[in-house]
Amino acid sequence: MKHKGNKIDTGRWFFSLALALMLTGCSTVGFYAQALRGQREIMNQARPVAEVLADPSTKPLLREKLTTVEDIRAFADSDLGLPADGQYERYTNLGRKYVVWVIYAAPEFSTEAKSWWYPLVGSLKYRGFFTEARAEKEAAKLRAEGLDVYMGGVAAYSTLGYLKDPLLNTFMGRPDADLAELVFHELTHQRIYLSGDTDFNEALATVVGREGALRWMKARGMQKELKQYQREMVLETEFVAEALQTRNELKALYARSDLDEAAMREAKQAALGELKIRLNAMNKRHGGSLKLDRWFEKPVNNARLNTLATYHDLVPGFEAMLRDCAGDIDVFLKRMEDMKDLSPKERRALLREATPAS
């Protein structure tokens, strides 16, 4: 199973940081200042891809991946209608595994995600830090407030076209299929980003990223890679379905009025325990290939399940709408762009209406 929760799309958040420093109080100036420093580090260290390719010290694998991304960018422009011009034409080696560490939070007895407000962008369901220590400090503060918290390292994010994003060492070692999906995912956000609607933006990019990767591999005759990627998609879909089933069960549990906190806490842990049992059974059915021990190394709670919902809950609706557009990505994206004047609730209603009955 591929782990997909390692990319975010901060976009206008960075574009508005300077304004935020003037508008916010002392308690948040430190947050925005670290974000500005982190973005500046990425941009200042970026080197043109052509320069990196010409450098005799560049390792063969990186050289190969940089060349592959050039082809992926060309496909994004020619076949998917995504704005690749000027994007990913430079490369930054940050010398670390992740570019940022992101925090998600939710109340102990609610599946409603905590959100943070940012100038120009509005509400987002995460908070990002360029050092793990600062992220952990914030996470500890939220835990002390009684919230469920999930913190994870992130390999990539998009500035939504406000800046020319470079390639990062944090994701260049991925298999070509996953690399293509990531690039198409991020470029989707550069074409369509609806402020304040994290779930819409992420699920849309998930669908286009996947579909783009499938089409790219088919066009390039990558039959072995295509077969493996399709298998991983099946596993991921089944895994996410199990997790979201538990999230729905918890949502129903939290709506009950006949339980005190102790009883609800016990029922919550029982539901999460059942999830682990179901996932272990799924893993056994698929030959033990899911690496569940690694997934369960971090707590599974409301915040963790919310991250999966953000990227996947609306996916069936988007997939149905793409089919309704006869698979034409450009027509599909134009239809999605037409939703910009709708409220998040209205968008969800349309997506739910399009979702096939299970």
Can you describe what's shown?
With 358 residues, this protein is mainly α. The chain has one domain (7-354). The protein is built from 15 helices and ten strands. The chain has a three-stranded mixed beta sheet. Strands 7-4-8 form a three-stranded antiparallel beta sheet. A hairpin with a 3-residue loop joins strand 5 and strand 6 (122-124). The protein is globular and about 65 Å long.
Shape: globular
Strand order of the largest sheet: 2-3-10
Order of helices and strands: EHHHEHHEEEEEHEEEHHHHHHHHH
**What is the tally of beta strands?**
10
Task: Report how far the terminal alpha carbons are from each other.
Answer: 23 Å
Range of helix content: 55-70%
The figure for the number of domains is 1
Main beta-sheet strand count, sense and barrel state = 3 strands, mixed
Spans where pLDDT lies below 50 across 5 or more residues: 1-5, 9-27
* Distinct helical segment count: 15
Share of residues in strands:
5-15%
Rg over CA atoms, rounded to whole Å, is 21 Å
Decide which structural class fits the backbone: mainly alpha
Mean pLDDT: 90
